[in-house]
Structures are given as C-alpha cells and as structure tokens.
C-alpha cells in the first residue's frame, strides 16, 4: 500500500490517499489544535489483497505549554474502533515530537478504515498535531516511541573513533566525531553519510541508541578505511560554544514537480570529523524517512578574523637568510615559513586576549613532505602554562597553497596561541605559507536538497542560514518602515540616475531628476486603508510601508519600469484580467500555477514582459507575504522571496553587480558611512576588516574608499601596489577629485614610482605614463633627450628616447611633504639620522614606539605613507614591519 498521510503544516492541509474530518479542532498556523473532547478522523482504503499483518502509525505532535509549565493533553487512538493506545501523552518539550505505534492486522478491514485521534476530556491544554502517517510497518513492537526523552535528542554526540586499512587487523586512533542532526521532529538518525570540502567522504550506521557506529571512510587522497566509533559523551546544546559551531537553517519544503514551497521546521546540523567543513550530508531515520542537503559554502568573514591582533610570532627555527621566517605566516603572500626537523612549534602573541574558535593553515609552495600531519593548538594567558584546545591527526593538504580551516569550541580568551606540530609528512623540514585566526567558523549561507518521507515521493528541501553573518550593503537591513524605505530608495535612486541613459529615464520628470528621487509622494494612511478595504485584507508590512514612502515607483529594476499606485493595486484576476487569463494555467505537467494566479496580488504596472506578485496564502510570522516575479522568459514562477522588501533588495543587488563600474561614480550617501567605519577599523589596526569595508564603499561609488583601500593594501604587499594605484587611483578622475592633487602627489605618486621602478624590466614607460599630469615638464633637449617635455599626458612611451624622457621627468619629481604631528615628526627625524648611520634596528625601534601617536586631521589619511616612499627608510621598513605599521592602533584608537 501507499502511505496515507495528513499534513497540517500548510494551509490548507495536504492529504495523501485519504480524507479527513475534524470535530472541536481548529487550524492554528502550521498545525491542528485538538482540545479536550476534540477529534480528527482519517479515512483510508485497503484492498483484500493488501491487508497487512500490521501498520505503522506515526504522529508528529506537541503539547501546548501552560504558562511556564508543560501542558497536559492525553489522547486516545483507535482504528475502526479498535484501541491502539489510550490516555497517551506526547512527551513534553519546546519542539514537536515524532511518536510511532504498531496497528495490529486484526484491527484492519478491506475497504474503508477509520483512524481516530481524540483528545481526552481531562486535557488541560491543546495537542498541536502537525502530521499523521499510516504506512506499511517498519516496527515489530506493539508500541514504539521514536523519541522518548533521552539525552541524545537534545545533545551533540561525541564519539571516540578509529579506522583501519582493508585487510589489516590493527585499528588506529582517528579524530573525534561530533554529530547532531535535528529537523525539529525529534527523530534520531539511523544512518549518516557526508562529504568534506576536500573531497573526503564517510558513511556510517548507528546502533538504535546511537552509542556506537560502524562504516567506512575515503580520505581526500583516495585512501579507503573501515571506520568505527564509540560514544564518549553528550554535550548539551545549551553549551554556548557548541551553539557557535552549530549550523541552523530556516527551511522550506516543496519545489518538486507541481509542488509549491512551504515553511518547515528549523534544521540544526553539526558534523565535525576533524577535517574541513562538511559540504554535503545524507541521512535516514528509523522510520524510513531520509534527506540530503548540499551546503552553500561561505568564506570566513573579515568581521570574525583576529589575525591582525597578532603582534609577534616565534618559531622553533626559521631560515632567516632565505627570508623564510615565521613573520611571513601573517601575510597574504606567496612567501612561507620553513623550519628544521619533522617536529616544530609556532607561538603567536596577541595584542589582547581573544577566544579563537577557528583557524586556517595554508600549505606552502613546494615539497608536500614538509606539510604538517599531526598537531595540537594550545592557548595560554602567561606564555608558560598551556591548555590543549584542538588536536588533529593524519591531516593532509591536497595541493600547494591550499588553505584548510579547523573549528573547535571557543570557551576561553587567550593572549597566546601555540601550534605544536608533532609530525610532518616525512621530510626533514616543516613549512607553512600562512596561519589565520578567527573567533568563529564561517557558516554556510544555506542549502539545497530534498527530503523523502517513507512511502511518499521526494520533495524539495531548501534552507537559509540563521547564523551566517548578514551580507553587507543593501541586503544587510531590509527596509520595513516608511523612514527606512525613504532612505533606502533615495540611495538606490542615486545609483540608477547616475548610470541610466535618457532612454531608460524617459518617464522620469525633471523634478524627479533634480530631487534624485524616482518615486512620488507617499500614499497617506487614508489611501492605504481604502486599498485594504477594497482588497478585504491588511497589506504585508514592508509593502504597506513602501506605499507610505512612495505611492508607486519608476525603474525599480532594469526590467520593471513602473510600480502601481495604491489606487490601482489589485488582485491579478481583476487588475489585469487579460494577463491573468494568459498566465494562470501554463502548459505541461511541470507547471500549474492556476491557484496561485487566482489569488495573487499585482503590485507592478509596466515592465519588460514581467509582473510582480504577492501571495496572500504564504504569510510569515511577522505578517510578510511571499513575493514572486512572473516573466515571459521563465518556465514558471521565479524564485520565492520572503517579502516584497526582499524582492526589491534582490533586484537591486543584481543591478549593482551588473553596473558595478558605473556605480563607482554614483556616490550614494551610505558610502560615506562605510568610509568612516573603515577608517576607524584601520586606525584600530583591524586591517582586513578595513580593507573589506573600503571595498564596499568603493563599489558604492566612494573615491575615498577606493583610495584608502589601495593605500592600506600597499602596506600589506607593496610588490603589487603599483597595479592598484594605476587602475584605482591614477586612472580614476573621481578618486583624484575627491582626494585632491596635493595628497596624490605626496602619497600615491611617489609610492607608484617606487613600486614601478622595482618591477621595471627595461621598459618603464608603460608604468610611468600614468603620471603624465603629475610629473614635471622638462624643456626639450634636457640631458640630450629630444622631446623630453613633449610627451602627451597619459600616452604610452616607446623604446628609446621617450623612455629616457620619462625617466628624466620621474627623476626630477619632488613630492610635497604632508604635515605630521610634532611628536611623530621628531621621531621621523631621529629615525632618518639613525638609518643614515646604518643603525637600522634602532631606527625601526624609534618608529615603532612613535606609531601609536601618529594621527592626522585629514579623513583621507590612515597611515604614515612616508615610511614607504622616503628612500631613507627603504631598508628599515621591511615587509613584516610595513604590516606592523598598519596593524598598530594609532591616534585616538591607541591602546
């Protein structure tokens, strides 16, 4: 027989192979509420030839709470009047539970069978019923509770593991395994398989109580082993450190053929096997339900990185003469650290104690046999007494310059971290290219997959992270209030008006252009109330506020030219009956949107063969309606958006990605806030965060953001700085206009000349020509060079006399000197004198001591660039010291 089910998590409920009727019950959002004496009956049919020995009845339910206490809602369950169980209470808790019972064959009849779930008269609360399933039996006991109150259900299971090669009798210790998988239904996994980002795969099966597992594992290099584990303990989810590494997703089911999406229970997922983060998970439970998810990976965000707080790194040994020193581990470069022996240690001292929960090791450029294999990361607050934080064994790097991340629960903040490498891959040296520290691991942005209940067809399964760092820019804070919409739309208007041509803006009036506003006066409350009365429902919050900010809109996306005003908004079937008649059915089995089109609200007016629609039947807890785009080039409806605001933000993001270069000139207001935030981060020494923030500002049109990010980048890696200066500063008139020619001549130009000169290979003119308007003009014939003063600005020099001409102009260039504070200027003068006498280290000591006192009143200065441009400091400021300059808190942010 096929499974019979009633799914009350959607409205209206969905039934499979049966019909239902209720008495003294009522729908309550995503469930059916059964009170004292209430009942739900489910009819299903069985043929003579398929009467089974028993069936399995599964309920997903929860008892409503009474204040802060658990409620009491016992139920009686019968099939054809035959008692299955009486006075049964679903185990209490904050989440729905899955319980299963055996229905004996003698209770079943050929033809129609009736299952009855009835609330007992003494109930002091409600039974919230989410789903009922009747299916061929997979249990042998008369009654089998799938999710009794047992520690594993609300805990992370920690396993001590081993593996052995095929044919070998010896089991070897393997990294511990942490497992937690919960769809909000309380069911424990019976089998589990996963794949790591490095390609390693594992597949295991659990004992019913999850105390042991057995399976196999294939490593990233293809090595196959048997794999087993024994339960070492269970860690409660209330442990905040485990909550930080737990992946939590808001989920939806549906999306398979002819099946619309609907909200589902939250998914909690944690699988830590000692390797890279997991990218795919497959599981099954004892009831025969199964699922698979593929995670949308995310890189560690700059907001979590604390590598910039490292003030010193030491190693057991390093190759100083070759420049392969421990300091290189803190750089984003191709340089490396190399140490003697097959064992090694590295110590990192931070500016202040930080709770590190994730670190990244990057393999070096050559000799895989030098890669670390076994190591322990330790923490200390005095540099003498160390605590083990994370231990790894049998690790490997698949290729050169491969970054691998490792996560562990971050309980305590430490000021010192020590990486003890106890074994390498077999060579006589150990090496790494980079080490980075983070307060937390990167969280997947979401997942795609499918879920299949026993006896049913698979359905789509989608998730959005509840714990990943929100994206910056327009998607960071979706507008909901009238004031937020006005600010959001003003910024969006500025970008569109700057890059759109006259044809795109044909309907935009002169007043709108002058005001930088593609909208209209906002609808007053009376107009919005009149619309709601006409529709017979209250509008979703974000769209209601949008009308209050602007009653209609022009050019909200490249393909949507006009949004409707309140007086013309209406149900699609009434507001545009011709379109409704055309698109309500579609063709083929894969598309049937008739019901949706009959209830959809049309909020757009004119576009490029597309319509914007809101769904009043898909409402979130905060009252938002799902939003869609129907377009003639889509095979069906477009992607689901949780709200009108989310749809607008998605379209804006697409516009900004397509027009990124032109938007650099748009100068929207939020870019100034980003520059101020980035400057504060830079002066605090948070270089990577500042670089990311300046990049956001540059994309939003800020010349200051482009300039400050370029200058900061020069301190991190001067070898490539001339490329960025040429393209992002000297080649962008907007940047030069914002920063001013005086500062360009004092900082960017000499820095560019230094970097370009170090990269010249006999043809310097192609680099220097970018300075055509900055370098001094020399008269014809100077130093015997013909045409030295006559090369046009911006032209590329050729071989021969023109190259010499450019060289002469560069040599004659004397950059202006920007003012420094008295304290820092005195330190510069002393440091120059020491450097002239060859006292390089003493010169650096003077500069380092003065760095916290450096400051500038100019908002476009964030570091003493003179340290990179003055030839007197060429030997003093090594790449490691240049990085130290910008990671040292300065001015008002000094510690």
From TrEMBL:
Sequence ranges assigned to domain Knr4/Smi1-like in this UniProt record: 522-650
Pfam families, sorted: SBD (PF17882), SMI1_KNR4 (PF09346)
Superkingdom of this protein's organism: Bacteria
InterPro entries on file: Galactose-bd-like_sf, Knr4/Smi1-like_dom, Knr4/Smi1-like_sf, SBD
Transmembrane regions listed in the UniProt entry: none
Protein's recorded name: Knr4/Smi1-like domain-containing protein
Organism: Streptomyces mordarskii
Lineage: Bacteria, Bacillati, Actinomycetota, Actinomycetes, Kitasatosporales
């Amino acid at each position: 027989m096929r499974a019979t089910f009633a799914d009350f998590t959607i409205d209206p409920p969905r039934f499979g192979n049966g019909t239902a009727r209720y008495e003294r019950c009522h729908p309550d959002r995503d469930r059916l509420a059964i009170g004292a004496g209430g009942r739900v009956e489910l009819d299903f049919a069985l043929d003579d030839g398929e009467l089974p020995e028993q069936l399995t009845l599964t309920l997903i339910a929860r008892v409503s709470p009474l204040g802060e206490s658990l409620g009491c809602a016992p139920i009686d369950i019968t099939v054809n009047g035959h008692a299955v169980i009486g006075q049964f209470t679903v185990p209490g808790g904050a989440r729905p539970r899955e319980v299963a019972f055996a229905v004996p064959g003698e209770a079943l009849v050929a033809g129609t069978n009736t299952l009855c779930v009835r609330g007992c008269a003494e109930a002091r609360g409600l039974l919230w019923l989410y789903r009922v399933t009747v299916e061929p039996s997979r249990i042998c006991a008369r009654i089998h509770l799938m999710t009794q109150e047992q520690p594993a259900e609300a805990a992370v299971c920690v396993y001590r593991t081993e593996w052995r090669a095929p044919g070998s009798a010896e089991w070897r210790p393997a990294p511990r395994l942490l497992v937690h998988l919960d769809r909000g239904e309380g069911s424990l996994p019976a089998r589990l398989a996963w794949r790591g980002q490095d390609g390693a795969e594992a597949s295991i099966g659990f004992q019913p109580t999850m105390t042991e597992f057995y399976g196999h594992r294939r490593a990233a290099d293809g090595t196959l082993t048997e794999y087993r584990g024994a339960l070492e303990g269970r860690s409660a989810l209330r442990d905040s450190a485990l909550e930080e590494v737990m992946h939590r997703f808001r989920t939806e089911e549906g999306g398979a053929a002819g099946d619309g999406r609907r909200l589902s229970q939250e998914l909690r997922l944690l699988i830590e096997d000692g390797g890279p983060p997991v990218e795919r998970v497959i599981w099954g439970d004892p009831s025969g339900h199964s699922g698979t998810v593929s995670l949308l990976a995310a890189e560690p965000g700059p907001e979590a990185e604390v590598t910039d707080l490292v003030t010193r790194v030491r190693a057991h040994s390093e190759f100083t003469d070759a420049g392969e020193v421990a300091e290189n581990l803190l750089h984003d470069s191709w340089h490396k650290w190399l140490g003697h022996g097959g064992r090694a240690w590295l110590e990192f001292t931070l500016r202040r104690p930080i709770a590190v929960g994730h670190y990244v090791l990057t393999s070096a450029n050559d000799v895989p046999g030098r890669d670390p294999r076994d190591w322990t990361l330790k923490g200390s607050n005095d540099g003498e007494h160390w605590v083990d934080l994370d231990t790894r064994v049998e690790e490997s790097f698949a290729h050169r310059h491969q970054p691998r991340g490792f996560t562990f629960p971050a309980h305590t903040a430490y000021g010192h971290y020590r990486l003890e490498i106890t074994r390498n891959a077999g060579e006589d040296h150990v090496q790494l290219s980079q080490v980075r520290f983070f307060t937390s691991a990167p969280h997947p942005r979401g997942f795609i997959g499918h879920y299949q209940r026993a006896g049913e067809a698979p359905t789509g399964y989608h998730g959005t992270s509840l714990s990943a760092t929100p994206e910056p820019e327009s998607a960071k804070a979706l507008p909901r209030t009238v004031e937020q919409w006005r600010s959001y739309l003003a910024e969006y208007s500025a970008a569109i008006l700057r890059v759109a041509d006259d044809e795109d803006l044909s309907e935009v009036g002169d007043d709108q252009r002058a005001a930088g506003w593609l909208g209209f006066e906002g609808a007053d409350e009376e107009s919005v109330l009149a619309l709601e009365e006409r529709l017979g429902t209250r509008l979703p919050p974000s769209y209601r506020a949008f009308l209050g900010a602007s009653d209609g809109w022009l050019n909200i996306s490249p393909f949507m030219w006009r949004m409707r005003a309140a007086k013309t908004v209406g149900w699609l079937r009434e507001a545009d009956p011709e379109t409704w008649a055309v698109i309500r059915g579609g063709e083929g089995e894969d598309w049937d949107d008739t019901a949706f089109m009959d209830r959809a609200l049309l909020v757009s007016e004119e576009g490029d063969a597309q319509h914007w629609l809101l769904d009043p039947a898909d409402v979130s807890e905060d009252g938002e309606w799902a939003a869609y785009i129907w377009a003639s080039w889509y095979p069906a409806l477009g992607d689901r958006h949780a709200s009108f605001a989310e749809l607008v933000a998605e379209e804006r993001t697409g516009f900004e990605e397509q027009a990124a270069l032109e938007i650099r000139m748009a100068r929207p207001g939020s870019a100034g806030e980003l520059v101020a935030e980035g400057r504060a981060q830079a002066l605090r020494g948070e270089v990577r965060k500042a670089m990311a923030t300046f990049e956001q500002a540059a994309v939003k049109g800020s010349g200051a953001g482009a300039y400050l990010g370029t200058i900061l980048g020069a301190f991190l890696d001067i070898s490539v700085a001339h490329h960025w200066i040429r393209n992002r500063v000297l080649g962008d008139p907007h940047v030069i206009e914002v920063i001013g020619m005086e500062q360009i001549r004092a900082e960017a130009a000499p820095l560019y000349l230094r970097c370009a000169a170090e990269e010249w290979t006999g043809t310097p003119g192609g680099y220097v020509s970018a300075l055509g308007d900055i370098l001094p003009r020399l008269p014809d014939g100077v130093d015997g060079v013909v045409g030295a003063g006559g090369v046009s600005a911006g032209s590329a020099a050729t071989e021969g006399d023109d190259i010499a001409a450019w060289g002469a102009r560069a040599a004659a260039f004397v950059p202006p000197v920007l003012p420094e504070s008295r304290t820092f200027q005195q330190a510069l003068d002393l440091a120059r004198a020491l450097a002239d006498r060859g006292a390089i280290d003493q010169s650096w000591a003077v500069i380092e001591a003065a760095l916290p006192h450096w400051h500038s009143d100019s908002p476009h200065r964030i570091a003493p660039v003179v340290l990179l441009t003055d030839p007197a400091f060429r030997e003093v400021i090594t790449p490691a010291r240049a990085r130290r300059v910008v990671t040292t808190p300065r001015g008002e942010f000094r510690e």
